[in-house]
Amino acid sequence: MRPTETLSREHSLVMLVTKAAEQEVRYMRDTGAYRAEAVDELLDFFEFFTEACHDPKEERLLFARLCDRGLSSETGVLAQFYREHAEFRTRLHDLEHWVRAEKKNPGQDLNDFALQLDDYLQMMRAHLAREEEILFPMADGLLTDDDQDELERGFADAECEEADVGVRDRYADLAHMLLGRPTETLQKEHKICYLVLDAAEREIEAVKAGGPFDAEEAEQLVDFFRSFTRKCHEPKEARLLYSKLAQRGLSRDEGVLAEMIRDHEELSQRMQALERDLPKTREGAHKAVAAFVSDLDA
Fold this sequence. Notes:
Layout: H1 3-31, H2 36-68, H3 76-104, H4 110-142, H5 145-161, H6 168-178, H7 182-208, H8 215-247, H9 256-281, H10 286-297
């Protein structure tokens, strides 16, 4: 898989959560109310996944290699993407500042927050579309086969190390805000997973009730479980937390830690089944759709 294809898959995941965030904007404007927990989960996603897992692959690997191939980081199209990444970080900081202010002194201007969040989401949509339509085709044209191979290996290394070196700098800034233990970071990521699981359950119930099967939505759900759960979240548990617990005396062969490890292995097998079923569902094959829905429900 080309590096740009990997990034495109992650874009699908970001768009899935962007849609959920847009629903929250509409809710705020329609009701004048604010669902704090849902907003916290959405902002956590943009912090944990978009900025900590996705953007570094673009900036530190793809963009850097494109600079080696002659694009400027200060002028032109690539410079614009660098600037937009910086603006996303600023806008997200402003959104998080509003949330903290609201928690400390309820009654902040909700219309202002809804506008800020909507602007962030619209910018995200436009940014991803330009990367897909302009930057990625340009990159595939400029990069050599050796570049593609090296970037693919770099992406693989980043995904293996995202829970360690790959995101250490970004989580350092986040640590003082969370003021929590590593388990609290994992719990926040669990809330993001629950958010998408709720969407998956609604999709399952709709299909079981006779509704149409949305293959694009199903692919986005699989992308989430592949990109966020399996590549970003689970390594923190399996390679860091579980390893540290084993060092402190918990057994990997029996007891609660062993059960968690088995659960991860079973989830990985179920993920492989979903990935296996997915291509046939795009063709509308009834048995494939039924198998996919059954695997997803399980």
